[in-house]
Specification:
The protein has three domains: 66 residues, 3-Layer(aba) Sandwich (MutS, DNA mismatch repair protein, domain I); 133 residues, DNA polymerase, domain 1 (Orthogonal Bundle); 163 residues, Dna Ligase, domain 1. The protein is an alpha+beta fold. The strands form three sheets. Strands 9, 10, 11, 12, 13 and 14 form a six-stranded mixed beta sheet that branches. Strands 5-6-1-7-8 form a five-stranded mixed beta sheet. The protein has a three-stranded mixed beta sheet with strand order 3-2-4. The longest helix has 21 residues. The chain is globular and about 70 Å long. Keywords: Cytoplasm, DNA damage, DNA repair, DNA replication, DNA-binding, DNA-directed DNA polymerase, Magnesium, Metal-binding, Mutator protein, Nucleotidyltransferase, Transferase.
Length: 424
């Protein structure tokens, strides 16, 4: 691990990336992000074991401090179990609006200084620094950027730097807490070799158990295995995991854009003023879009409702919200926007909903208020929808919406507005 270099002036966007076979990819991760935000607002929490999540016995741990992790506590653990393991922990319900605010502050600093970056979740970023060594080195640039983020936001952040996303992400994990690490070109395999196979991105609990049954615990074992064996045991993901274990990853940086969105519209064959029908269709739209977010492991921070009247005048209203993919958060907000838009004196020709400012992140942003039963309910409904179709499980209030439009896969590329507008 290298020392942080002397502070230098960060170059602004006055350069172009060079064409080279060697990439420089940094992975930045805000350390125990939710906990760090809470400690910014209340210094009395410093150095104490912290649990953030649902505060009832049925709640779930969304995040925990390093002090709590020493007792074996981890995220997604039932709060009751966590408190049994660490009874002196301070339990905080959490405030997703505050976490969204600080995530955006960090994003603004990165956007100002880095030509190409990917926001992979609310607290993780990949930066493409290829070609920036022409100034004073990619590692020094990343170090200065890390220092600037800590100075301007007060949040601890770690990073790993290497030639690809996989090695950089693993390096960040090894550098934590609140540190940095560089893996030189050609040293990827020796760096990865002694680590647990759980460190490889894509290796979840099921894959890990499969590898354990083969006697595989360390990455060096995977490195020495024939790729054909990995494919035979793990199927289509076998080769990808084998390549990652050997430090090979050609995955590109997917440029982050807050304009990214999914949306749907419903145009009526006959204009209507039936508010019950309109709200039912609106609810069905939001419910389906929320399911698509969860299926794509995405969160939204902005919801927009659109109403077009019979005279073709179109009005939209949007609201910024804490990152979420939960029906019970999005539906009330959409209904609130619709009530502010709706003019009962005019017939409605079209209504639509759009969710934008998407980031990766799954459902964790709702663990502060959800209990285990709500999470299990979402998982059960989504599983049935995956198997039997998007409309196989719906709320009773949304049953008037016979169709809500056809969706292509919204998370396999462009264009951003991916729900077809269908007449009903």
């Amino acid at each position: 691990m290298e020392e942080i270099p002397h502070r230098a002036q960060l170059p602004r966007k006055r350069f172009s990336l060079r064409s080279s076979g060697e990439r420089s990819i940094a992975h930045m991760d805000l350390d125990t992000f939710f906990v760090s935000v809470e400690r910014l607002m209340d210094s009395r929490l410093n150095n104490r074991p912290i649990l953030i999540g649902g505060t009832s016995d049925r709640g779930v741990v969304a995040s925990c401090s390093y002090e709590a992790r020493k007792f074996g506590v981890h995220s997604a653990m039932p709060m009751k179990m966590a408190l049994e393991m660490c009874p002196e922990a301070v339990v905080i319900r959490g405030n997703s609006a505050n976490y969204t605010k600080y995530s955006n502050l960090v994003t603004d600093v990165i956007k100002e200084n880095v030509p190409a970056y990917e926001k992979s979740s609310i607290d993780e970023f990949y930066l493409d620094l290829t070609g920036m060594d022409r100034f004073f080195g990619c590692y020094q640039f990343a170090s200065e950027l890390r220092r600037q983020i800590m100075t301007e936001t007060g949040l601890p952040i770690s990073f790993g730097l290497s030639g690809n996303k996989t090695v950089s992400k693993v390096a960040t994990g090894e550098a934590k807490p609140n540190n940095q690490m560089k893996i030189d070109f050609g040293s990827e395999r020796p760096f990865l070799a002694p680590l647990s196979v759980r460190k490889i991105p894509m290796v979840g609990e099921k894959t890990y158990q499969t590898l354990r049954h083969l006697g595989v615990k360390r990455i060096h074992t995977v490195q020495d295995m024939p790729v054909e064996m990995m494919e035979r045991v793990l199927g289509k993901h076998g080769r990808s995991i084998w390549e990652k274990a050997r430090g090979v990853d050609t995955t590109p940086i997917i440029q982050y854009s807050e304009r990214k969105s999914i949306s749907t519209e419903r145009t009526f064959d006959k204009d209507t003023i039936d508010v019950v029908k309109l709200e039912s269709i609106l609810m069905a739209m939001v419910e389906n879009l929320a399911f698509q977010l969860r299926r794509g492991v995405k969160l939204t921070a902005c919801i927009t409702v659109k109403v077009r009247y019979s005279d073709f005048n179109t009005h939209t209203l949007q609201a910024r919200i804490p990152y979420t993919a939960a029906d019970h958060v999005l539906i009330p907000k959409a209904k609130e926007l619709f009530k502010r838009l709706y003019d009962r004196r005019l017939l409605v020709r079209l209504i639509g909903v759009r969710m934008s400012h998407l980031v990766s992140g799954g459902h964790q942003m709702n663990l502060f208020e959800d209990n285990v039963e709500i999470q299990q309910l979402y998982q059960a409904m989504d599983k049935m929808r995956d198997k039997y179709g998007d409309r196989s499980v719906i709320r009773a209030a949304g049953m008037q919406a016979r169709t809500i439009g056809r969706m292509t896969n919204p998370f396999n590329g462009d264009p951003p507005n991916l729900l077809a507008n269908r007449r009903a």
